Amino acid sequence: MRIDVITIFPEYLQPLELSLIGKARQEGLLTVATHDLRDFTHDRHRTVDDTPYGGGAGMVMKPGPWAEALDHVLAQSEPGARPHLIVPGPGGTRFTQAMARALAAEPWLAFACGRYEGIDERVHDHAREDLRLEVSVVSLGDYVLNGGEVAVLAMVEAIARLLPGVVGNAESLVEESHEDGLLEYPIYTKPRVWNGRAVPDVLLSGDHAAIAAWRHAQRLARTAARRPDLLHPSQVAVPGEPDVDVALLAPADVPELFTLALAAAADEARVTDALDLPELSVSVDDVTEGVSTRTWVARKAGRLVGSVRTELCGDELRISQLLLAPDLRGGALEAHLLRLAEQSAPSGIRTFSLEADARSLERMRTYRKAGYRRASREPEIAGRVSLVKRRRAG
Ligand code: JD8
Description:
Elements: E1 2-7, H1 19-26, E2 31-36, E3 49-50, E4 60-61, H2 63-74, E5 84-94, H3 97-104, E6 108-112, H4 121-130, E7 134-139, H5 149-160, H6 171-174, E8 193-194, E9 197-198, H7 208-226, E10 244-248, H8 254-272, H9 284-292, E11 294-300, E12 303-313, E13 316-324, H10 332-343, E14 351-356, H11 361-369, E15 373-374, E16 385-390
Helix pairs in contact: 2-4, 3-5, 8-9
Bound molecules: ligand JD8.
């Protein structure tokens, strides 16, 4: 990959000579060239800015030097080859890991670092229409910097580290935050006890399935706590229930979920004509427990209408608290929450299990249709039947 950076502060990009990116450049895995915009001025003061038409504070970068600098960059590679021009700007499309992955697949990137109030808008049009470059205005995030250089440092690092051979063990790229939409799990190294704080036992167990399960649960819990937006509806649209969205249970949901649990239990008692249902004695604490495991809640137009809890047990995913608002009973939502629970299982999971009341014929049909079969094991809840389903490979 080739990267060209045009800036009035070339020294700002010196950090890209260090560490992994610096090493990758020495190994020829990528080329990074910086160009001083002032080299494309022709006045004694090497002027690159002027006052804004229409008035207003600050200065605007002149188009002339930019056009000459872009011509110079285009001359850096074989005729006909064109870079993708990235112009950092606070009003641009948000830079993401997905964008970094996409840009890492391109052969040639050029970054235009603005300063002052920004670059004359006609430079973008000239690049698109005259130079026929793909031009993308990209923002690092919703805060204001003084120029594009810091953004380019971050973008180049995020992109270049995805290039083959730049990061030693490519494996480690897989489990990173934002790579699969979940934040990272907590990490530890020696000593086992530090400052009176011990490393979680599971990490010393050598039980890789348990470690994987613990790490996945940590990633979900952290994501739910710090970035619930990463877990939000787009992830799990409900077929046939367009206005239902699903997210991980948050502490604020507990009172509503407790109410739903009781309503669902009352509905179940009505259907099974039995009052000996353990669900009828559910407590707020029982529901609160769901916040620290992996419990999904479904909302329809803001109303909490369903939930499903999942717990990892070795290579088995135990599904429980599959609750539905009575008015949605028999609809697509139950089967969908079941599928969602299965889909969110970490790679090491081989079996799904749940317990059901055999008297609840409709629900038994839903589970059977979803592939669950009676298990020989004793159910944890007396009077229930234990259902299991093997996870299909792939
Ligand atoms: C490029 C000039 C400064 C911005 C007046 C302050 C990116 N996430 C981001 N925040 N800010 C930038 C950014 C800021 C820049 C330039 C990028 C060129 N400025 C301007 C408008 C308000 N000053 C950025 N990526």
